[in-house]
Fold each of these.
Amino acid sequence: MNRFSRIVGTGSSLPGEPVSNAELVSRLAERGVQSSDEWIVSRTGIRQRHFVGPGVTSSQLGTQAARQALAVAGMAASEIDLIIVATSTPDYVFPSTACLIQKELDAPGGAAFDVQAVCSGFVYALATADAMIRTGIANRALVIGAEVFSHILDWNDRSTCVLFGDGAGAVVLAADTRPGVLAARLHADGRQGDVLCTTGKISGGEIVGHPYLTMNGQAVFKLAVVVLDAVGRETVAAAGMTLDQVDWLIPHQANVRILDATAKRMGIPSERVVVTVGQHANTSAASVPLALDQATRDGRIKPGQYVLLEGVGGGFTWGAALVQI
Ligand code: ACO
């Protein structure tokens, strides 16, 4: 019998009240850093973001998103035999954020590990869970993107600190005889690692390297648009389909201009693109599952529809998965 994986529940978590551009700009002004709502909206489309309060971690946000996804799936945490968490902002060096979430959900016994592919992380994690389910290693997986990027932002660097937010999104992926994940493709080019990185590490009891995110914005922009177009086409073709059959495009939510340029290159009209970057800013590995959950809950994405999920980010990494809901 054919064995596939299907998304059977989605969930998300956004901490606290949204922080508007005006509020962020005024907080930055107190430190002598100048920005404006007009600059942020016109360059990025971002209007607000959420930030965690003191002590709140990726595993806490990820656990909340996971509980929501399990509730939608009508599944108990004890039925989960695989947890993969995509994060670049784990609670600890180890244990993994996935193990912390497994403990919090009181669902011991299955496999649990983190995936580190920055903003492509959720698509990498989904493709990994799909392969593990199809090959019989797992039956029911939680795939989670969870980030607290506010922990690695340099508030004196206006070119990066206005772009990111915190949050988590999750899906339950379950074995099925009908296909849900139709195709997935993953790529990386380590030679481009320095366009977007956080090089800090703990060594000998000290932080060595730079503990904040740094980015060459224009280089990222150019790379992102090219690879999102290419991997989207590659993935849809691998499923034996064409781009006009895709009901919804959900690219990584970095910047509205990247989303617009990608959709244009792919010939997908803007009405079929899910855009949440205005409300969430860039939540790295959480951005795609957050957007998927939002568009599912508000009724835009309907059962049976084809959704193309795309990630791109540090590493440099990129990937896509075509799923039928
Ligand atoms: N407020 C006001 N002015 C600013 C700000 C700010 N927050 N940030 C930068 N500026 C200024 C710069 O200092 C510069 O001023 P100058 O001309 O006097 O030197 C001016 O704005 C233009 O700066 P650029 O970097 O050239 O601006 P650009 O038009 O390239 O936009 C941006 C910057 C938005 C980062 C753009 O390059 C971009 O969208 N890049 C894509 C990267 C991205 O979205 N990264 C997200 C993470 S990557 C990922 O998730 C895959």
Amino acid sequence: MGLFISMEGPDGSGKTLQMDLLEKKLREEGYDIIRSREPGGTPVGEAIRSILLEPSFTGMDAVTEALLFAAARRQHVMEKIRPALAEGKIVLLDRYIDSSLVYQGIGRELGMDYVQMINDPAIDGLLPDVTFLVYVDYEEGLRRKRLQSGHTMDRLEEEEEDFHRMINKGYYSLAERDPKRVILIDGARSPEEVAGEIWQKMQEYLEKL
Ligand code: TYD
């Protein structure tokens, strides 16, 4: 029931703009949708988010971090995502378990299997029907981020270069790990071209609604 779409991508991939464009298009076409983001999406989740992104918490242990992301996710699934899907809505989600697999599993070197295990109780068997992975390579992502004037870096964005290079590689391997669900979208094109491809791929899923 319903349709669960998640959007993923490394920092600077243009993921958020693509979320905006897809949300707008779905609303224009009259679909009943809710948009949300991780970490966050519920009052409990937003409180956890502020802990996770707090720049002064430089000493946060990697497992603590992974557990906090998973805790926020569990609350999100139970309080918001499952109920919306049960009502037949489209759920459009900015980041989900794949972000943890990549940022904590690869970036923090906890391993994808370990992070999957931590997340099993969080997702409670719920995976997106489709995940759009908007991909740009590391240099392009960084260049775009720096161009955004007035953007202050959060704790995760301030990680050093190697971390972000690993994130980019990790994202790429996600599409290989689960090619049926994760659709790789080349983000190094104009926003209109990227949105056009996403919308074209969406048709298959909308038909099943
Ligand atoms: P946010 O400001 O939402 O970033 P973006 O606009 O790039 O989505 O910050 C979320 C940050 O948290 C981002 O750097 C990715 C990271 N993250 C994880 O490390 N693990 C996770 O499970 C999730 C959901 C996000």
